[in-house]
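This part of the workshop introduces the protein records we will be handling. As an example, a complete record with its sequence and its structure tokens follows.
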Amino acid sequence: MATAHRASLRLALAVLVAALVAASVVAVLVGPTSISIWHVLAIALDPWGTGLAADIPASERVIVWSLRMPRAALCALVGAALGAGGAASQGLFRNPLADPGLVGVSAGATLGAAACIVVAGPLLATTGPWLRALALPIGAFLAGAATTVLVVRLGGQAGRAATATVLLAGIAVNAFAGAVVGVLSHVASDAELRSFTFWTLGGMTSATWTKVALTAPFVGASLALLLGRARELDVYALGELDARVTGVDVVSLRRAVIVALALGVGAAVAAAGLVGFVGLVIPHVVRLWIGPRHAGLVPASAVAGAALLVASDAVARTALAPAELPVGLITAAIGAPFFLHLLRRQVRSP
């Protein structure tokens, strides 16, 4: 049985990795400017144009290396963080309808972004362009992390509060952050409100290699934390009491998972804005395919989330070309009907 499960997991991961590679290749190829796959390969191997890509026009090198490739890489990182975070959230709350935003990280990041745009925007207007470009993602990440710490402290008094208490604390903090965001939206100028609205819809238009480099360590640390706790999450699925009896430190597990969510999902939201439903839909689909064991579910959900977001962004860029849709609209269009399907199954189940 174990051998068959491992073989099924390897097959699933191979299929998902192939899907991610295919989606990435398509994402780099498609766009207003048509570029052959051979030129793309040459540019990827020789971005400075000193060897294989010496005869390729400089404009194509800029499009592929500076625009499309970092965008695909950032999509993969964000999708991986959301997919793995969704799998961990559903394991932590023992609910297939759970979402990483339940611990407050998304609401906190949204509040941080709103504060950067509305409050700090005028102050940053006279600073250098690099500081203005980094202020929003850094502010969103720090606010998301701070909100998550607050949820842990509120929901973990005395260190032994049930997971349900953490969930209730997350709901309360989400509501408060939403209220503050509403106030900031009310006092924002038209330009600030438009900028914030586009951010909340999710998008990759500002993707650069710098942003990829800033996001990757946090996503990597998040995945490593979740994989390190995979076996404990499997035991935890039996219930907190049973997990304690078998030797699992439930409080430590809960905090480790929430820290991982703060790192990965916080970095993803800071880099791309709010991209909905990836953390909800992807883990559920993968679980139906390979089973509930988190040692396979977490990495498979990460790869599947990356493939979905890369493909969704390619659709967002080309569906109404030359106009561009926010990628969050594409994932919502895919995820909302699936969420309703899950809800119907939950209601019908005894």
